[in-house]
Fold this protein.
Amino acid sequence: MTPCHVHVKDDLSSQLKPVSLFVWGSDSQRVLERLMFVVKGPGGFETRADDDLHTRSKMWTSGTSNIHLQMSYFNLNAFQTHEKLSKVDLSDLLGTVEKTTGATKTKKQLRNLQNRNATLELPLNKEQTEKIERSVAYEKSTKEVTNWQSIVIQNQKAEQLVFPLNQEPSGPKRVEQVVARWKAVTPLEQEIFRLLHLNKQPVLDPVLTEVEEASLMAMSLEEATIRRAELQKARALHSYYEAKAKREKKIKSRKYHRIQKKAKRKEFLKQFEERMTTDPTGALEDLKKMEMSRMEERMSLKHQNSGKWAKSKAIMAKYDESARKAMQEQLQINKDLTQKIVTVSDDEQETPEESETVPDFVNEVEPITDSVNPWMRSRIPQEEPEISCVTPDKPQISEEEEEEKEERNEEEDLLADFQRRRTLRQTEDDDLIPTAAEEQILNTCEVSREEVVGEGTVEISDSDENDSEEEEEDVSQFNTLFKLMSSEKTHEGPALTQDQQEDEEQLDEGQLRVRNMEDLEGLEVSDPLPGTAAPPLMPQPTASEPTAKKSKREIDLSEVLTKEAITIKVAMKPTVLEDEEHEEQISIIKEATRNCLMEAGLVDDKLDDLVYDKKKYLLKNVSTVEDVFVPISGEPGRRLLHVRTSFQTGKPITVTALTRQLRHPSVIISVNINHNIVQIQLHRLHLDSTCHSQQKSHTHCILGSVLNSSIFNKHITKGNVFSEVSSTVAPFIERGLQIPM
Amino acid sequence: MKVKVLCRNPDDYVRETTRDIQRVPRNYDPTLHPFEVAREYTRALNATKLERVFAKPFVASLDGHRDGISCIAKHAKSLSTVLSGACDGEVKVWNLPRRECVRTIQAHEGFVRGICTRFCGTSFFTVGDDKTIKQWNMDPPGHGLQEEPLNTILGKAVVTGIDHHQREATFATCGQTVDIYDEQRSSPIRSFSWGVDSFSCVRYNPVETELLASCASDRSVVLYDMRESTPLRKVVMTMRSNTLCWNPMEAYYFTCSNEDYNLYTYDMRYLKCPVNVHMDHVSAVLDVDYSPTGREFVSASFDKTIRIFPKDKGHSREVYHTKRMQHVICVRWSSDNKYVLSGSDEMNIRLWKANASEKLGVLSAREKIAANYNKKLIEKFQHHPHVKRIARHRHLPRDVLKQKKQQREMKEARRRKEQNVRKHSKPGSVPLVPEKEKHVVAVLE
């Protein structure tokens, strides 16, 4: 054993004295040993004194060799096996209480406890206690963790996060910062600081105090008087010159002023000529001044020969030599004034041209046609929804004529159409709030069904009067089925929507490797869009109709208005329909169309024709279509109708959209998809927007610098998360804690 | 007579210095720019295309190990230093900017199972198959001196993982139990076990630094508090979790990588069902690490790919793979949020960009503005079909693709079957279990 070790032991025993005194009674030697062991720890102090080069590693190895003898590796209450040494028992401590003085109360309590005879309850079994301990600990730590919630949410909502978050400016800090952070702790320090504060010791500029500065600023009497005299003189001079200028200005004599002016000019010219030789840049400035004065004079409209004097002189000039001369002089002056001084900067020349390049219409005031969308104000027609109007005057014209007419006034028609559509859409937007179109029918059928339920208007189309009853049956069947599905849906809902979301965010993974732009072009063109994977079947055009015409327009009038005008005879009143609603609607249709036709000055019986045709058209088109969009460029497609075929009869049942159709009797809403537009069209509303108009406005909000000032542009294009290059982003730490180095 | 004339202040149109940019009188009236939306759409499309064309995430490959990489550790302070342990017991210290190994240590016999650096960056710890925990100095030994550990702790069982406390001189290891060691002592100051005999990973919570979580072989994830004598709670899942990682910015979230090809993000306060299930891998996920910003995490999988997931999305935003990269064993996100490091079976450490198309190096102000603008444009038009199609497209190796297809079919079949069962049984008797709840077997208190 080395002497060092002995020293340590001595020291310890002296420190332990008060404890040992307390325990000394029973078997004090044993307790002391035990305490010594506990304090010394497993490694003990023996190895500390080792003077070898690799002290530390050796210590560790020797320590480990010792420890394994005494404790089990997995159970840390190791000393229990070693004659229960690890804890100082309560009984050990309490045993000595009897012999000490004082603490009578506790003694009494102890004695009472000893005398108690009641049986204690059985302690909980180990599993239970552990479980309780665990749950208590868990509660505690969850509570602790929850303290972070506000920060977490705040960060999640933050528009921009710049990492590292808790940035402290690196580098040397100013003295004041350090001083401000440092706080006086000891009484001596506090005393010193109090003194300093009393003397108003400055923090920012620790060189001089206020008092010192004031003393520095002080002047002697002599200096003060001199300075005062100087100031007085300056003031006097100033007032003298002021008075002089006022007096001169008050003189009304023209001659005086003229002479003054002339004298000034002469002097100026003299100076100018002098300067030409000595100081060319100064001369240039002078020249500019002269130019300015010339301009001013020219602007003053003097020497224009339009004044009273000039007119009289002009009359007199015939007769009077001097008048003639004066006139000539006047003209000369005018001419001189109109001529510029030659050296003019380039900028000045350019400006008028520039102003010319700005087109006139810039300054025109645009009428606001659409209050919702300011971007639509332009007169340039943008792409419009495929809602085509059947104007009431068209039906009566025969096909060929109509075609001709179409060609003739195509432009006019177009314009009129656009106008009309615009107004139509404005009115429509209120009652026709569109739902997002969805293309993945397979995945989302349940969801869409729910939407239909939400709208709550399940209606059937009134097809031919003959089988309307049959249809009724279908409807009832459908309704029951529908309820069943919707009830099922309530179970299936969340999972499926999640599925759908996932589809949305999933990557498109394939074997195609993108190396250059051409590959991307290929990607763009070749791949069928997920939304348009199954384009709905269109109703086959009848043989008589030329297909070329169809490609021209989405809805062919000829298709709408078949030649079978004989069927007009169908009664004005649908006889078989029982449903009140339907009657009502049909009557509405008739009313409306009649109004239209009346306006157009048409005969009554054509109206039935139209109604019939429209009905027919609707049923024909709708029956085959599965999911329908109204494509509008830049807007999400609106799902107008969702059609399911009845399982048993296979006959079409149309829902909700037909009601909309019926609400606008003079409009046939196209149910066809324009594939060219669908390619670049949104297919559904997205998470950040709740309605169609919001999405639209989002799209129309310009990010670029063309329509935004640069500052705003910078603001809206800044990234969400910004982490600085080559700076470590450390995890959050509790406030007030510094990382020790 | 007073005459009013047009008078323009030359300040409005004359430039003051030759370096001034000429002021362009601009009319912000939107009617004058009717095609601006269309123009922006085109710009967005082009930006997307360029982004994809310039998406070259692979930066460098560090080779030098003579066996598969088993673990990687970031240096706590230095961004340019990375440590890696291999299956032959070798530990290498790498200099990233120079892309070379600066130090090699034969640390263990058998695998190096875990490696972690001390918070101050002056030393690091390794654990290996030879049942030892070793502490090494970060500085190489002087000339002529041998590599020797600062400390060695001999254990009785194999230690499989190690993690160091954020601020204090304690570290946690896992093997047959989860042990908390004081650096000054050779025996654990605390030891946790809860009916399990093998743990694969233990991680300290970087924010709430007294908390720990571990993955055990009985398919469970167990939470601990260093100050308590007992574990806190245990959640048992259908399959085993390999590793886990705490979110460094959000104290109560952690993500574990599972054998069932998915990753699960849990809120430690509500363990009953995960907050999010991240699926896309087609084989067991072996490692996961959060970005230091806590917004995303990267996962390494047995299917030879690494994927980057946003923390709240179910699917990955990025997938990285190369022909030569085999099963990826470990992955780390660099602490400046710019790079991802992956160590794989075929003895290489690969350095990837965290944003595939990000330009490296110093950007000029104009470049920055342009990049920001493009990013916003892509974000604005991200839902449009063309843009989406291009932005989402990723190349995948054939095998992975095949497996993916297979799995999709299997999943679909399972779903269909379940649906049919539900349809033909008494309503309510076959409950619909959401995907999130399917994977949790029990939460033990």
